[in-house]
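Why does residue order matter? Because the sequence determines the fold. Keep that principle in mind as you read this record.
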Amino acid sequence: MGKTKNLNGTPGNLAVSYLSTLGYYDGGYMADWLNFIAREKSIMKIEIDILNDKIEPKEADIEPLKADLKRLRGILKKDLSNSGFDMDFIKKAVMEFEIPIDNLRIKNTVYCYPFIVDENGKIYKPKKRIIETAYEVDFNPINEMRMKAERIKKNWIEKIKEMLN
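Structure:
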């Protein structure tokens, strides 16, 4: 059995890994996606359950936010193993996000409060919140998809015109 104090850095590691530039999905980083869905659906708090692949509230439960959860479970498993614990020692691994959608001065900031809970009910969390800035302030994948569809449509129309001429 390992020392539990070695697990104090694990929640922060999970959050930083999730929000890093390695967490890229279809045109945006995780902070971009969090910021987008929060503003799109008027949600100020999003909770991501790493172990159970769940996101609350349901309006925020979108594939881009779940894309890296398997990788995070791998990081958690490795951290636990390095500290002398099995994966089943941790009963809960959660990242709580606050997105200040009502404050225009900080319209692209995401705050993360990660924590894990062991089988004895002990809670591990970083001393400070994790702060990340969305890279694309006006990130909107819906507009991006529309623009891409329009480009494809124009290309096809041009090809058809060339064939007819």
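Residues 4-137 form one domain.
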